[in-house]
Automatic annotation (TrEMBL):
PROSITE patterns: AA_TRNA_LIGASE_II
Protein name: Asparagine--tRNA ligase
InterPro entries: Aa-tRNA-synt_II, aa-tRNA-synth_II, aa-tRNA-synth_II/BPL/LPL, Asn-tRNA-ligase, Asp/Asn-tRNA-synth_IIb, NA-bd_OB-fold, NA-bd_OB_tRNA
PANTHER family per the UniProt record, alphabetical: ASPARAGINE--TRNA LIGASE, MITOCHONDRIAL-RELATED, ASPARTYL/LYSYL-TRNA SYNTHETASE
Length: 447
């Protein structure tokens, strides 16, 4: 049984029940008569306190054990309702599996995130990274659970593709005539699973992808990775307002369940970032604000002096500083901005009757900016072709995509959640490199 399971069934545990734990030593204090070992098994950020008394200490040379040692402990549970931890284990038997070389870089003393980024294979052994990765795992599980419970088909969009699905030219090349030409044509790593998801939405109505996504982002920011994970639902017969409602409900459900199921990790993260739980709870309790792009521009104009980019006008792409200001200062919470000018958005979005805007939305959150990007898709064949021509997007590789509009197309809508940005939002971590096990960014690929 894991330590998490043990702590979850606390109410039914009896004094003197036997328990075995396999894990790693976190701390070791005391003397030759009594020692307190704390052990973590990776199932929770909480540790098990193990109390050793008498001859077991010298027999196993417990005083010499150092942080990181792998071991198996057996003993009897002692309930401690008045202590900081609800129970401890009275040690009866211990097997030392392996000790730790002297230069082990993870020590009790504080280390910096920068230092830990240099050792991605070891940093998960800190309380911070244990918490982040357990929350990441929970969010992934809850997302699948939500979709499965709402009758969505989980589908695999291809990772290697012949399409630049966003038409933004940020693709990482897999193959072309300059390489080995394995595919005998140009091939990229996918920048989105959306286009393929649209094909499946035309059969299964509700579908989603959840997979690795690749972008040749040259911006060195705390919010961009070259390899990240995206969650992309696509729903036939849905319009913009329907898909925004889905995004809001999905987010609130997965965040709520994660807070409920991982109280110790959330408490730990809240101790580092004291506004975290308040901010998340405020989001859960409130209705999502929806605001037109044109009204955002008017609002931002009033605060022009707060920005580095002061040229605020209709048609501009909102910079990260504007997105953050809107969600942090004006709305003070998550906000969905809708109906963006078509010239700053992708070719496949539904063109509104005003000839200027498309039925798109971005969901912006405090501390991060854009968490979700989505839209209603252009359903009219000729409008789509016209827009692709305007943008000089070559039609041949996307013939199949255009076909969808000719064969019983039911208008569809969808969005993409940057999964790492969601993990940042829920953990309060400010650099995206710290919410994925092995980050990849331009100019750097460790391991
Ligand atoms: O806004 P984006 O580019 O939208 C799409 O790709 C659509 N095809 C989604 C859809 O409608 N199915 O990307 C979606 C989200 C962004 O809001 C952001 O959270 C995240 O993906 N994202 C990144 N996350 C980390 N690193 C990057 N380089 C990212 N680029 C986008
Ligand atoms: Mg976007």
């Amino acid at each position: 049984m894991t330590l998490k399971k043990l702590l979850q069934k606390l109410q039914t545990i009896k004094e003197d029940e036997t328990f075995e734990l396999k894990g790693w030593l976190i701390s070791n204090r005391g003397n030759e008569k009594i020692r307190f070992l704390t052990i973590n098994d990776g199932s929770t950020v909480s540790n098990l306190q193990v109390v050793a008394k008498g001859e077991i200490i010298q027999k196993n040379n417990l005083s010499s054990l150092t942080l990181g040692t792998s071991l198996v402990v057996n003993g009897k549970i002692h309930l401690t309702p008045n202590a900081p931890q609800p129970l401890e284990l009275i040690l009866e038997d211990i097997s030392l599996i392996n000790n730790v070389d002297e230069d082990y870089p993870i020590q009790k003393k504080e280390t910096t995130l920068d230092f830990l980024r240099e050792i991605p294979h070891l940093r998960s052994r800190t309380n911070l990274f244990r918490s982040i990765m357990l929350i990441r795992n929970s969010l992934a599980f809850e997302i699948h659970k939500y979709f499965q419970e709402h009758d969505f088909l989980y589908m695999a969009s291809p990772i290697i593709t012949s399409n630049d699905g966003e038409g933004a030219g940020e693709t990482l090349l897999v193959d072309d005539e300059t390489k080995d030409y394995f595919f005998k044509q140009k091939a990229f790593l996918g920048v989105t699973g959306q286009l393929h998801a649209e094909a499946y939405a035309a059969t299964f109505k509700n579908v989603y992808t959840f997979g690795p996504t690749f972008r040749a982002e040259n911006s060195h920011t705390s919010r961009h990775l070259a390899e990240f994970w995206m969650v992309e639902p696509e729903v036939a017969f849905y319009e913009l307002k329907d898909i925004i409602k889905l995004a809001d409900d999905l987010l609130k459900t997965v965040i709520n369940n994660t807070i409920k199921n991982y109280p110790d990790e959330m408490k730990f993260l809240n101790s580092i970032n004291p506004n975290l739980l308040d901010t998340l709870n405020k989001f859960l309790e409130n209705k999502l604000t929806v605001i037109e792009y044109k009204d955002v521009v008017k609002k931002l104009m009033e605060f022009r002096d707060s920005f580095e980019e002061k040229n605020i006008h209709f048609g501009m792409d909102l910079a990260s500083e504007h997105e953050k200001f809107l969600s942090e200062k004006i709305v003070q919470g998550p906000v969905a901005v809708i109906n963006y000018p078509k010239d700053i958005k992708a070719f496949y979005m539904y063109q509104n009757d005003d000839y200027q805007t498309v039925a798109a939305f971005d969901l912006l959150v405090p501390g991060i900016g854009e968490l979700i990007g989505g839209s209603q898709r252009e359903s009219r064949y000729h409008k789509l072709v016209h827009r692709m021509n305007e943008l000089n997007i070559s039609k041949e590789p996307l013939d199949w995509y255009l076909d969808l509009r000719r064969f019983g197309y039911a208008p569809s809508s969808g969005f993409g959640i940057g999964f790492e940005r969601l993990v940042m939002y829920v953990t309060g971590v400010s650099n995206i490199r710290d919410v994925i096990p092995f980050p990849r960014v331009a100019g750097q690929i460790k391991m």
